[in-house]
């Protein structure tokens, strides 16, 4: 399988915030944003693997900035690291100023997707080769995030999480 760069999976979805998608403060409801991020990340994982992909884990979400009703919201997702059958997908969320078009980063999230065959069995994905400094930073941090996710899910013994342990022993 030929290795791919993050740009091969980059997925950009732009939409606005409607009244039915807001909370009591008239800001975008968190669950609605999670769904938008999941859709963009699923497309990115599919573009990298050219397989059916399923969400295995939501590793991190930060709702840093409330997104008001009427905002133009852009969700950008790209695979940040690929393993055997799983892929980490990094998602950045931006809002756009109505008058000058300036973009502000509102949120970010990290999801794990697994490529599966028609029976739902995990199947191999191409290697990912990062190119830009940001892609390299995200690639390098991905293994400890995978180990943390597996430890929290009870799928890895903490003793085997070498990258994660290294964070505390440096
Ligand atoms: C787009 C959507 O919303 S899809 C709907 C929501 N998602 C789903 O329905 C998925 C339901 N879950 C499943 O089908 C299965 O649990 C799967 C396919 C995710 C994993 O199946 P498993 O039998 O556990 O497979 P297995 O243990 O071999 O793991 C497969 C890969 O996932 C990784 N993985 C599994 N769980 C996690 C986790 N919690 N965090 C990070 N990685 C994980 C494994 O490390 C492995 O990666 P690798 O092959 O790259 O090393």
Lay out the secondary structure.
Layout: E1 11-16, H1 30-49, E2 52-63, E3 72-82, E4 86-96, E5 103-116, H2 133-152, H3 162-169
Antiparallel strand pairs: 1-3, 2-5, 3-4, 4-5
Verbal overview:
Keywords: Hydrolase. It holds the Pfam family 4HBT. GO terms for molecular function: long-chain fatty acyl-CoA hydrolase activity. It is a single chain. It is globular and about 50 Å long. The chain is built from three helices and five strands, in the order E-H-E-E-E-E-H-H. The protein has helices at residues 30-49, 133-152, 162-169; strands spanning 11-16, 52-63, 72-82, 86-96, 103-116. The protein is an alpha+beta fold and 170 residues long. It has a five-stranded antiparallel β-sheet with strand order 1-3-4-5-2. Helices cover 28% and strands 32% of the residues. The longest helix has 20 residues, at 30-49. The chain has one domain (6-130): Thiol Ester Dehydrase, Chain A (Roll), CATH 3.10.129.10.
